[in-house]
């Protein structure tokens, strides 16, 4: 018979499993600081020695990191999706930029569809709250906070899709976007898009999600990403034309 004796579980093992789940589900994010040892032990209902054993194991496995004088943080586990050499190639190739946007269009469209179907009321409440803050924050071309809320809005949709593989893969992609690997968000927002157009697109996405209209949610995300792709294409063309014009001007002055 396929039965085995049940082994009592160490408290530290239970703590490890709980923190693992929080990281896997995207609730604890890379770079997030854990509560103090005393507070965390109280929340978990375990002794501080048991908690220390659990944190040490998670640090050994690369899921947590300790910073002297600052505390314990969720490790940056997102940067391993691509090698540094490949990331450098992404940053230097226009074609990779548009492949990136096409990739996001497909996967974020699917995530929005799933969020409308499977997201909880709390998930949709988070999306609504972030959208409300986006409306208040103003133009992302002049506000770093507004540009960051744009990323948070898209991340919240991924979280509401309840697919952990999709969530962590896309967080890795967003991390590269934040670091300017593919394009500078602030420049794009300022030169070739309008705040009103972007806000209306996000409003349409949010409205479809709140109505739990899966098809409309996917279509709204795809429309938004098509707009971003067109805007970026216009920016690249404008930059190229400006460079050529500057060369002509320099040539004329030196004739």
Describe this entry's structure for a reader.
- By secondary structure, the chain is mainly α.
- Helices cover 71% and strands 3% of the residues.
- It is built from 11 helices and 2 strands, in the order H-H-H-E-E-H-H-H-H-H-H-H-H.
- A two-stranded antiparallel sheet has the order 1-2.
- The radius of gyration is 23 Å and the shape is globular.
- The chain starts with 10 loop residues before the first helix and ends with a helix.
- The model has no long low-confidence stretch (mean pLDDT 86).
Blueprint of the fold:
Layout: H1 11-24, H2 37-44, H3 48-60, E1 64-67, E2 71-74, H4 84-91, H5 94-118, H6 121-137, H7 144-160, H8 164-178, H9 185-192, H10 195-210, H11 214-253
Antiparallel strand pairs: 1-2
Helix pairs in contact: 1-3, 5-7, 5-10, 5-11, 6-7, 6-10, 7-8, 10-11
Question: What key phrases describe this protein's structure?
Answer:
71% helix; mainly alpha; 255 residues; globular; two-stranded antiparallel sheet
């Amino acid at each position: 018979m396929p039965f085995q004796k049940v082994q009592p579980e160490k408290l530290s093992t239970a703590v490890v499993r709980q923190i693992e789940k929080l990281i896997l589900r995207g609730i604890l994010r890379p770079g997030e600081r854990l509560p103090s040892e005393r507070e965390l032990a109280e929340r978990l209902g375990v002794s501080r020695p048991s908690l220390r054993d659990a944190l040490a194991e998670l640090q050994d496995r690369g899921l947590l990191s300790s910073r002297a004088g600052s505390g314990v943080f969720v490790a940056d586990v997102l940067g391993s999706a691509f090698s540094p050499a490949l990331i450098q190639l992404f940053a230097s190739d226009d074609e990779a930029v548009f492949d990136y946007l096409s990739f996001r269009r497909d996967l974020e469209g699917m995530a929005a569809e799933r969020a409308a179907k499977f997201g909880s009321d709390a998930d949709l409440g988070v999306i609504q709250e972030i959208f409300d803050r986006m409306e208040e924050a103003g133009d992302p071309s002049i506000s770093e906070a507004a540009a960051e809320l744009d990323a948070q809005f898209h991340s919240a949709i991924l979280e509401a899709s309840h697919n952990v593989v999709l969530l962590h893969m896309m967080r890795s992609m967003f991390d590269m976007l934040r670091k300017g690997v593919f394009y500078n968000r602030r420049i794009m927002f300022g030169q070739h898009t309008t705040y009103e157009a972007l806000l209306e697109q996000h409003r349409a996405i949010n409205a479809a999600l709140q109505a739990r209209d899966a098809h409309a949610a996917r279509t709204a995300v795809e429309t938004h990403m098509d707009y971003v792709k067109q805007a970026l294409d216009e920016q690249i063309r404008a930059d190229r034309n400006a460079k050529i014009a500057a060369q002509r001007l320099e040539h004329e002055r030196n004739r």
